[in-house]
Amino acid sequence: MNFMPNDNKVVDSKRRSLLKLSGMLMGSAAVATGLSKPAFAVAPTGAATFTPPGADNPIRINFNENALGMSPKAQAAARNAVAKAHRYAKAEITALGQKVAEYHQISPSSILLTAGSSEGIRAAVEAWSPLGSQLVIPELTYGDGEHFANIAGMKVTKVKALANWAFDIAGMKAAVASHSGPSLVYLVNPNNPTGTITPADLIEPWIKSKPANTMFIVDEAYAEFVNDKRFRSVSPLIAQGMDNVILLKTFSKIHAMAGMRVGYAVAHPNAIALLERHVAGEKINFCGVDAALASMNDPAFIAYSKKSNDLSRQILLKALDELQLPYLPSEGNFVFHQLKTPLKDYQQHMADANVLVGRAFPPADNWCRISLGTPQEMQWVADTLRQFRNKGWV
Ligand SMILES: Cc1ncc(COP(=O)(O)O)c(C=O)c1O
To answer: Of the residues 65, 114, 117, which should be mutated to test ligand 1's pocket, given the most ligand atoms within 8 Å of the CB?
Structure first.
């Protein structure tokens, strides 16, 4: 049921919207939308080269990837690294560790590089899964914590969410207090799939109270996209010496390097020493390491990535508002919105229109997670949604 190719009026109106958007991105209107010209002087792959989606090139807004493509400087660094990649990236790994440490204003002994933050999640769960320990998680959050705890044979305690899927921090505290063994608390901030933040004022006092036998993993994969001032990273707490919290970070999101597999943990050196026993010796791939270094040295790309995400979000939310489809306040590179129809039907209609949206996230029935693509892609998706309304599909 691919209505798009046969529906010339739809395609024409989409083309007009896209032309307008290209103007916004590249011309003077960029300033009006908060997109400054210097940022677009570095416009990388993807953004300027939108082609309408087809069966072979669908719009992929299903995995919270960054559709802009890597910083051109990071791409060049990765290409150049190929010629050196018969060696281990010894000096480069040390240089990246130092760069990351500088960024977090902490000693390199508080940094452990990992193959994406997934490896950090697995290492932390393995390291803190002695007999009798539990993983405490909210009922709707990123699945890797639970996944690796199940593999490690660790008890998983899920705490029911508050309204709008907000974390019940009081409920999580109670779950820790009522457990006789050690607890590992996994907090994703902003959360995935909801895209919402948990205010620092709810998290920091709990960490600072140092509950007995408790280690916190705070996963801030999407922190660089956040606008809400109530969010604060736990990074300064670790720099101040707190030894009961591990911060997990990734180059997959704001840096657009998901396929490069680079992430890291920030924690007290004692916690880093424990984590180190559960990773493959910081043997990160050469191309990823050099690309990460180049990307960290390219703040214009990071600013561009943030602003492009803000614009993409604005385009999608405008359409959701118009269609009165409820959504949660998004602070990440994705939006969690509610449907009046079953998710399966919506996914199918989208797939027929060559748009791939997020999977089911139980227990959130009839909610859909839409990752934010490029502004041009989101304009296309917004227009597709409006067509769905005309057809009574949303
Ligand atoms: C909250 C969160 N943490 C970690 C990851 C894993 O990312 P990666 O292993 O690519 O760093 C993801 C991926 O989507 C995520 O959403």
So the answer is: 117
d(CA 15, CA 90) in angstroms, rounded, equals 49
Closest CA to 182 of 206, 157, 202: 157
Stated length of the chain: 394
Please identify, in words, the CATH class of the domain defined by 8-71+299-390. alpha beta
The residues near 117 (Cβ < 8 Å, ≥ 6 apart) are 219, 221, 248, 249, 250, 252, 263, 264
Average of per-residue pLDDT across 294-308: 98
| Beta carbons within 10 angstroms of residue 198's beta carbon | 19
Residue 8: is its pLDDT beyond 80? no
Q: Which residue is closest in CA terms to ligand 1's atom 14?
A: 64
CATH for the stretch 87-296:
3.40.640.10
Comparing 297 with 42, which gets the higher pLDDT? 297
Q: What is the pLDDT of residue 2?
A: 34
pLDDT > 90 fraction of the chain, expressed in percent and rounded: 86
The model carries a pTM of: 0.91
